[in-house]
Amino acid sequence: MNVLDSFRLHGRTAVVTGAAGLLGREFVRALAEAGANVVAADLNEPGLRQAPAALAVHVDATLPDSVQSMFDQAKSRFGRVDVLVNSTALDPKFDVGEAARHTQTFEDFPVEMWNRALAVNLTSMFLCCQAAARAMQVEGRGSIINIGSTYGLVGPDQRIYQRPGEPTRLKPAYYSVSKAGVLGLTRYLATYFAGTNIRVNALTPGGVYHEQDETFVRAYSARTVLGRMAGKDELNGALVFLASDASSYMTGANLVVDGGWTAW
User: Fold this and answer.
1) What is the distance between the alpha carbons of residues 211 and 250, in angstroms, rounded to a whole number?
2) Which homologous superfamily is 5-92+121-156+173-212+230-258 in?
3) Is 161 a catalytic residue?
């Protein structure tokens, strides 16, 4: 097979959760450009209109029935499911206008918010992987891609969020903990499906530029080897690689695309 042909996804169906998000929309576009029939799924129905998908599905990925309905709709429309991209997440943003919301200390962090975040960031992936596995076992093959974070590998550098004279701003514990759990789930499923053609890998992005203030951008960029944040489309090549036959000998792996943040 020509190496470029191995990246093609023609005739395959890809389900992308969190499709209304910044990276989710990019993932939908990249998979469609590679030839896949793409199902864009999200709780945010207005946001789905911005995702260029063949089928848009409203889903609450924390509810088993809603998740199963999403896969039933995908199979009804396209007859099969070959790729799952688990991109649903609560990610506390530090974009302009958002940073002031994140001032709760670990000692005082509400357990209700902790439980909700774990449900969205981790339980949703568990449920989607369950439903995807049922569909992929029928086809005898499949690729599951769980989206992680560098903060699932290393602790957050809380210094980059601070501003002189302002309340302390914090990346909450649930984000690191849930993203570390994503890697555990990925490795578990990769070995669970040993001997099959169902592959499970993680894709771990670094920070993506999205209207953060200049102070944050400079501080974050100084921590990376490449000296900058990622563009929103710079994960797409890695995603298509993991979704396609180009990564056919890869499972249980974590592909880190972070500009060198974790290489220091």
Assistant:
1) 35
2) NAD(P)-binding Rossmann-like Domain (3.40.50.720)
3) no
pLDDT tens digits, 145-197 = 999 999 999 999 999 999 888 888 899 999 999 999 999 999 999 999 999 99
Question: What is the C-alpha to C-alpha distance for residues 196 and 250, in angstroms, rounded to an integer?
Answer: 13
Q: Residue 101's pLDDT is what?
A: 66
The ranges assigned to domains in the chain are: 5-92+121-156+173-212+230-258
- Cα-Cα-Cα-Cα dihedral of 77, 203, 143, 79, to 10°? 0
Instruction: Indicate which residue of 175, 192, 220, 249 is catalytic.
Output: 175
118 close to 173: Cβ distance less than 8 angstroms: no
Write a three-state SS string for 196-233: CCEEEEEEEECCECCCECHHHHHHHHHCCCCCCCECCC
Contacts of 88 (CB under 8 A, 6+ apart): 17, 18, 42, 61, 120, 121, 124, 125, 128
Taking the C-alpha atoms of residue 96 and residue 93, their distance in angstroms, rounded to an integer, is: 9
Report helix, strand or coil for 174: helix
